[in-house]
Amino acid sequence: MTPIRTLTPQTARRLNITKQHLAGPPATADADGIMQVVRDLGCLQLDPISTVARSHKLVVFSRVGPYDVAHLDRLLYQDRKLFEYWAHAASIVLTEDYPIHNLLMRGYPKNDTQWHRRVREWIEKNRAVRRVILSELRRKGPLPSRYFEEKGIPTVNWVSTGWTNERNISRMIDFLWIQGKIMVAGRAGLQKLWDISDRVLPEWTPREKLSEHEVVYRAAQKSLRALGVARARDIEQHFIRGRYPHLAEILQELVAQGVIERVQIQDDERALPGTWYIHSEDVALLERLSRGEWQPRTTLLSPFDNLILERKRTDLLFNFKYTIEIYTPKHKRQYGYYVLPILHGDRLIGRIDPSLDRANGRLNINAVHAEADAPMTRQTARAIKDSIKDLGAFLGAKEIVYTERVPEGWKQVLR
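-> structure tokens emitted (415 positions)
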């Protein structure tokens, strides 16, 4: 029996970071480079908060540096190489991965769960709403959701304790979107423009109907390759989050086929818990990293960046606890409203609390926080300042303003 390969935590982090396009030479800041990044990450989570910039734009920035957002928009709304769909949340995904996402489209809401039964019953009670939306989109699309809200179509209310309560048109559009009947064809600002899917998807879209087994077989590999090294629970939380039935058996199958291999992560002090895996196609990269072939970078990460999205994994691998404080009352926040972690080489060494004053073209750095073991050197501070300068350039800021809330060891540079 071949002995299980052992990685140090540092090598595991470096593999993860490299696979995430956060080390080595950055991808080119054009459409081809952005496609390369999204292809390797699998998806970019969408989030409406724009205190600095919308999350998916920041995720790309962290990997290619300042870029023209028109390149990303073109890939989405003109070339159609990307589209918006539900991956581990509302996300940007690849059109070439359509067969993977199509499994959810075909099966929603058909499962025998309480949620699916509730959705089916509500859709049935609102057949007229569904018919009007699809018919109007066929005739006039692309259209915003407000077009249907203004028509005053009689509806049976969707009842919930959250923000979706009585948002009947929005709920029906969401369900039609998950079913793959309609898609986002474009945007007017933050307003989505909806259209029939067959008009949004390009002719070259792969249409094969994959079995559940084949979807998990492919998605598990895509998730693992994006993470570099991962446990089953990490794989399950990435890419098509929560949609990996029989994952344990499929991972065993992949191991038996030599497609992936088990590894352990251990240093002199401890072994990280769980069974970890790497993809066989990443072994050569892993061996180069183990020999010290490593090109570190310093960059800032969105709160929803793929590297740190699973918080327990981030704590385990990076010893970095991150909680977004958007919904925390201001007086109880430890770090700030929309805080960006600082990735420095293979460590998360701190975080910044920025906000963009668009009216005055000013990027305000409300605070910079350092981890207890962060290197307090001028070189580190310069790398952080350069990253913030790149962020300002990406955002089109004319000036960057720091407050006094900067760690003492970095203060001479960060001013």
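The chain has a mean pLDDT of 96.
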